[in-house]
Amino acid sequence: MKNIFRTLGILFVGFLLVTSCEKNEDPTIDFGEGYVQLNSTTGSIPENSSSPIVTTVLLGNDGTNPNGVTVNFTVTSSDDSRFTVTPSNGTVEIPAGEFSADILVQPLDNLDADGDVEITIELSTSSDLPIGIAGQGLVATSRDIVITDNDCPTVYSSKYAVNVYAFDEEAPSHSVDLVPVPGTDNQFTIESSWGPSFVAWATGSASYEGLYLYSGTITVNDDFTVDFVGDDSWGTGGSGTYTACGDRFEITLTQALFSGGFTVDIVMVGQ
Predict the structure, then answer these.
(1) What is the spatial distance between Cα 174 and Cα 51, in angstroms, rounded to a whole number?
(2) Which of 186, 187, 248, 258 could hold 243 in an S-S bridge, CB 3.0 to 4.6 Å?
(3) Exposure string (b/e) for 172-182, b if CB count within 10 Å is 16 or more?
(4) In this structure, are residues 231 and 215 in contact, taking their beta carbons and an 8 Å threshold?
(5) What angle do CA 95, 98, 101 make, to 5 degrees?
(6) Is pTM, for the whole model, over 0.70?
(7) What pLDDT was estimated at residue 31?
(8) pLDDT, tens digit, 9 for 90 and up, residues 44-99
(9) Which InterPro entries match (predicted)?
(10) pLDDT: is 192 or 246 the higher one?
(11) Tens digit of pLDDT for each residue in 7-27?
(12) DSSP symbols for 64-105
């Protein structure tokens, strides 16, 4: 495939050389005073991001910008209260001698489960120069940005698919029931954390199949950190996090069943 592209490239270059020789013209395209466009037409950012998403306005011309360029833009959204825009006045300046300027959208984390926000940044035809690639007003005149909500209701599933990782490999997966501890709303027991096949897989001996299940209790704290306490003395527990968006546990387990003190990572996703 690479040879095909190389051949086509050679033929294309040859065609340009022949055309240039035949017409004997300067191939430089005249864009007049220039044009402005956006560097991207889509994008997304999580609601709890500490840094803004940046949209760059680019100046295309003959390589000079002696006086600076004023670019006007509009911002529309499904909820203006959930972000800020800089510059806030709908005008961005590309200073003299420079060829780009940035529009910043900073999400505001409102801690509410109110869905994603769709934002559109659109260059205005009232700008100093024509908009869009080559000033045609067709492409790269607007950008659609999605701010993804990170505040989902906490709803625990009754059953979870569990992926298990150890020794830089993936161990056999399994599923497990999440059983609430009576009288609590943040504690659950599971019959097996690393699964009924883990020890057989780790030792290479099928005789351990279904043994040493590593059962225990999961506690989800107020900040969504997670503590795991094993039921057996060799099940020395672990810690991790819970993500309500996606109903996902990520827990690193320690153990004293094997020598070497290695850890095991489990990822539990609600079914």
Answers:
(1) 38
(2) 248
(3) eebebebeeee
(4) yes
(5) 70
(6) no
(7) 53
(8) 998 989 999 999 999 998 889 999 999 999 999 999 999 999 999 999 999 999 99
(9) CalX-like_sf
(10) 192
(11) 333 333 333 333 444 444 444
(12) --SS-EEEEEEEEES-GGGEEEESTTSEEEE-TT--EEEEEE
Q: Whole-angstrom Cα distance, residue 268 to residue 185? A: 18
Q: How far apart are CA 124 and CA 101, in angstroms?
A: 15
Tens digits of residue pLDDT in 145-188: 999 998 888 999 999 999 999 998 999 999 999 999 999 999 99
Residue pair 242/248 in contact by the 8 Å Cβ criterion: yes
Q: In which residue are the tokens 């590309």 written?
A: 94
Provide the 10 A C-beta neighbour count for residue 27.
8
Q: What is the DSSP letter of 131?
A: B
28-38 burial, b for 16+ CB within 10 Å, e for fewer? eeeeeebbbbb
Beta bridge partners of 216: 190, 230
The DSSP bridge pattern shows strands 238-243 and 248-253 to be: antiparallel
